[in-house]
Amino acid sequence: MATRESGRIKDSASRRVLDQATRKRRSRKALEALEQDNFHDDPHANLVMSKKAPKFEESLEAGRKQDRKRKTRSTEYFKQRFRKNFPMLLEEEQSLNPDGPNYLTVQAPDSKFPERKLCAVCGFPAPYNCIPCGAKYCGTKCLSTHEDTRCLKYTA
C-alpha cells in the first residue's frame, strides 16, 4: 500500500527558500515600490471640463434659474482648485510648527503586545507561513492566490 504525499510538499523542494534578511530586504523593496507608485500628483488635476458637457446633478428648473442669475462658484470648485498634494502638506506642516511633533518626527513607543500575524491576501488572522517568501496566509484558498499572484513577485 503506497502512502499519499501532499503536492505542496513535493513542490516545496523545487522552490527557493529565502533567509530572514532577504525576506526583510524584499519586503522593504516592495514597500518602496508601492510608495513610488502612490507618490505623485493627481494626473487629472489640470483637466478642464467643457462648458458644453451636460451637468447631470442639476435639474431642468435649476438650469433655468441659473440662466437668469449670475453663476456662483461652489465650495467644491475651490476644494478642487486649491487641492494640495502630500509633499505640499508635509512642507506646510513643517513650516507651521518646526519644533513640535509633526508627521516626520512623531514616534510611538514599541508595543507591549506581540505583533499580529495577518494574512497577506485577505487580512484575517494567519497561522501559516509561505515557505519560499515567509508571507502569512490563513488557508488553502489564500495560499493558492498568494502563489499565483504574489509569491516571489519582487525579486531581490
TrEMBL record:
GO molecular function list: zinc ion binding
UniProt domain HIT-type: residue ranges: 119-151
GO biological process, one term: chromatin remodeling
SUPFAM superfamilies from the UniProt entry: HIT/MYND zinc finger-like (SSF144232)
Annotated stretches, region: Disordered: 1-74
Record's compositionally biased regions (Basic and acidic residues): 1-22, 29-44, 54-65
Alphabetical UniProt keywords: Metal-binding, Zinc, Zinc-finger
Cellular component aspect of the GO annotation: nucleus
InterPro entries: Vps71/ZNHIT1, Znf_HIT
Taxonomy, superkingdom: Eukaryota
Protein name according to UniProt: HIT-type domain-containing protein
Organism: Meganyctiphanes norvegica
